[in-house]
Amino acid sequence: MDDPLEPGDADAAGPIYSAMVDFFEDDKWPYSVVPGEPVLSMHFVGENGHWVCYAQARDEQQQFVFYSVCPMAMPDFKRDAVAEFVTRANYGMIIGNFELDYNDGEVRYKTSLDVEGTYLSPPLIRQAVYANVLMMDRYLPGILSLVYTGITPAEAVAQVEGKR
């Protein structure tokens, strides 16, 4: 295993990692470094819950990726309903998308930036990060309602999007 990347090692890890660390420090987000990876882990508290987020630098690909991970894994017997919810919710989304891992039930929201030919600026990171956490916060009640109620995926998305 590689040695953990420390915030001070940002330049050694590359410009995407450095920009990412600088943004979260300047924006006052407490984070931890994932050992051996160009990844930061942090918690976010929204109006509808709290969850873990991951910021990943993909310096070789010149990409920044940000994930919000749903605070609970979906039970096996609910994964088909959650997959339908995710598909319905994703339709028409412009920035980011939901993902479901059928193997373990993890649901996450992903935003990403490809900065080939330019650089990763704080405003770009800010847009990707805050669009991400706002979408997870908005759709989280719908995701959780699938687990705890008899609501259908279509009904859950309609409630979240105000299309009752």
Q: What's the number of structural domains?
A: 1
Stated plainly, the CATH topology is called Yope Regulator, Chain: A
Report the structural category.
Answer: alpha+beta
Mean pLDDT: 92
Whole-angstrom Rg: 17 Å
Beta-strand percentage? Answer: 15-25%
CATH class descriptor: Alpha Beta
Shape: elongated
What is the β-strand count? 6
Task: Walk me through what this model shows.
The structure is a single chain. By secondary structure, the chain is an alpha+beta fold. Helices cover 39% and strands 23% of the residues. The protein has five helices and six strands; from the N terminus they run H-H-E-E-E-E-H-E-E-H-H. A six-stranded antiparallel beta sheet has the order 1-2-3-4-6-5. Helix 3 (79-90) crosses helix 4. The protein starts with 9 loop residues before the first helix and ends with a helix.
In short:
Helices cover about 40% and strands about 25% of the residues. With about 160 residues, the chain is of the alpha+beta class.
Give the arrangement of secondary structure elements.
Elements: H1 10-13, H2 15-26, E1 32-33, E2 39-45, E3 50-58, E4 63-69, H3 79-90, E5 97-100, E6 107-114, H4 122-148, H5 153-161
Antiparallel strand pairs: 1-2, 2-3, 3-4, 4-6, 5-6
Observed structural traits:
164 residues; alpha+beta; Yope Regulator, Chain: A; six-stranded antiparallel β-sheet; elongated
